[in-house]
Design goal:
heterodimer, A: 114 residues, six-stranded mixed beta sheet, five-stranded antiparallel beta sheet, B: mainly beta, seven-stranded mixed beta sheet
């Protein structure tokens, strides 16, 4: 079975500071990993994904994530936070043998202080 | 750009009512999903469908059913609404034509309140 753990339900940073949102996964087969963002009153939209190949993945809005198999982690980072980054972020995992299922973490709400 | 449209943004229903949540996608995607989102629990899969008239139970199917009569439309049905089904419901579609790690495309959600 696959699972996702996001460390920290709330993260607060100052504008211009580094953003780090943590995600650890569990999977017995090679995983596909995703980060989605949800702005207020909207659905989720894809930030970035890892399938195969390069382990450092770049996404939209300056975000990136690194797949570390040895640590079973896929942490999301952004060098400099902007007020518009305030949202809820979800890490998710799926696989070719997962029967079309995508499993989501509980989410991390990011607050950005001026 | 993929568009997933959920028919209602907000719904208020009474306990015991039969409730229909509708979802339409315009990109000819094979797979469609219904999730519910609750604070602190993330998204939990209720049902999904990988073809017309096909459906599979997700992790929390109790109290729900689904219908997929056409490829573009996936309906979630609450047979007899209860207060513990008050939640945000998210529909998603996915292109699964052999593309590894296809992402989900979400609608804007339906916030259902059962009183």
């Amino acid at each position: 079975a696959q699972s996702v753990t996001q460390l920290g339900s709330h993260v607060s940073v100052s504008e211009g500071a580094l953003v780090l949102l943590r995600c650890n996964y569990s999977s017995s087969v090679p995983p596909y990993l995703f980060w989605y963002v949800q702005y207020p009153n909207q659905g989720l939209q894809l930030l970035l994904k890892y399938t195969t190949g390069a382990t450092l993945v770049k996404g939209i809005n300056g975000f990136e994530a690194e797949f570390k198999k040895s640590e079973t982690s896929f942490h999301l980072t952004k060098p400099s936070a902007h007020m518009s980054d305030a949202a809820e972020y979800f890490c998710a995992v799926s696989s070719n043998t997962g029967g079309f299922k995508t499993i989501f973490g509980a989410g991390t709400r990011l607050f950005v202080k001026a | 750009d993929v568009k997933v449209t959920q028919s209602s943004r907000y719904l208020v229903k009474r306990t015991g009512e039969k409730v229909f949540l509708e979802c339409v996608q315009d990109m000819d995607h094979e797979n469609m999903f219904w999730y519910r989102q609750d604070p602190g629990l993330g998204l939990r899969l209720i049902y999904f469908s990988y073809d017309v008239k096909m459906k599979e139970k997700g992790d929390i199917p109790e109290g729900y059913s689904v219908s997929r009569e056409k490829k573009e439309r996936f309906s979630l049905i609450l047979e007899s609404a209860s207060t513990n089904q008050t939640s945000m419901y998210l529909c998603a579609s996915q292109n699964f034509r052999g593309i590894e790690g296809s992402p989900l495309h979400f609608g804007n959600g339906t916030r259902l309140t059962v009183t």
